[in-house]
């Protein structure tokens, strides 16, 4: 596992997170009433101070009423404004010391504002969901909101019994008392705050694949009226899982769930062990199958192998885009090279002002980043050949499983699999805005077939 933790603020979101400490576990208990959209919560954070004594520290939390705060069981001084809960413990915390923080909060959760619209907690017509990328997690719980600070989670949600609660991780218990039910999930894998997923709605639960065959447990939570279309659209997800385990290595989590919210969503959203789709992604003719592949691939690239800060987002999206092309290639559709040629033609006709390795906050979700990221991965495949490329890919996901990475660490990793230096290729694709020509594939990357893929 990679241990590449950063001690600097995120250059794209310098107000988010506090790099002076890290959290290794969150224990969160929520009570949610969908009608009035009322949330009350308690969070206990187990954390470790960094290399310097902490006389104060901060958590990210949106505009809730804060009822109580404790540090190591004692009341600290604190202030809460501008999305920051600033805490001054009664006694300074020594460098490297373990400490606990307890926060009680309540209010009406709503998305936090961003250049991309509301992020985080979203009230639906009947229920709620969480889609926090990149900085929406404080819309519903207090956290150290930086992708490199990964922790385990225990999440308890109490809500009216008519609703199902779906979260990433293993469902430990579901307990009904009178008209409410408490759902308790645990995610033991190190998880970034933006990847803590949650959905509350009227869902039917179905299993995908055959768990008796020893594969990854896969479940789906779907409005009843969408089940016929869903069964066709997601029928090949178990085959995707098998292919991605073959190409990327073992699935890095204990289980995988998909939720279809009973509303349209602009785009599907990945969370740790969980992906969220909208009604518009379920059409009965597999019209969104590439997105099913994309979100599944994020469980390796982005969720397990996590970027140190948001400059490196192409490492999430470029690999997930390339996974779409690999699925197409292996499932009888267009080959990755054919799809790369089409993407290259598209990008050649568009402005070339995006630097993949540091796109800037304004362009970090630009569709060109996704396409160019996929093209960069394909260019590396063409340069290495399939044998070395797929070894490189599996090792990248394996060596950095549940770790934190950067573009520089990826370039160093790729270099180990190259027969000759790739500095010029990597510089042109990752660090220069102009679109390089697409390399011709070597003989083992066959444009008309599966080539040397394992």
UniProtKB/TrEMBL annotation:
GO molecular function: alanyl aminopeptidase activity; metallopeptidase activity; zinc ion binding
Residue numbers binding Zn(2+): 294, 298, 317
The protein's enzyme class: hydrolase
Location of the Peptidase M1 membrane alanine aminopeptidase domain: 239-429
Catalytic activities: Release of an N-terminal amino acid, Xaa-|-Yaa- from a peptide, amide or arylamide. Xaa is preferably Ala, but may be most amino acids including Pro (slow action). When a terminal hydrophobic residue is followed by a prolyl residue, the two may be released as an intact Xaa-Pro dipeptide
A GO CC term attached to the entry: cytoplasm
CDD domains per record: M1_APN_like
Keyword set includes Cytoplasm: yes
Cofactor requirements of the protein: Zn(2+)
Record-annotated Aminopeptidase N-like N-terminal domain positions: 133-195
GO biological process: proteolysis
Chief location: cytoplasm
Compartments where found: Cytoplasm
EC number: 3.4.11.2
Co-factor binding comment: Binds 1 zinc ion per subunit.
Pfam families hit by this protein: Peptidase_M1 (PF01433), Peptidase_M1_N (PF17900)
Keywords, comma-separated and alphabetical: Aminopeptidase, Cytoplasm, Hydrolase, Metal-binding, Metalloprotease, Protease, Zinc
InterPro entries per record: Aminopeptidase_N-like_N, Aminopeptidase_N-like_N_sf, M1_LTA4H, Peptidase_M1, Peptidase_M1_dom, Peptidase_M4/M1_CTD_sf
Family: Belongs to the peptidase M1 family.
Protein name: Aminopeptidase N
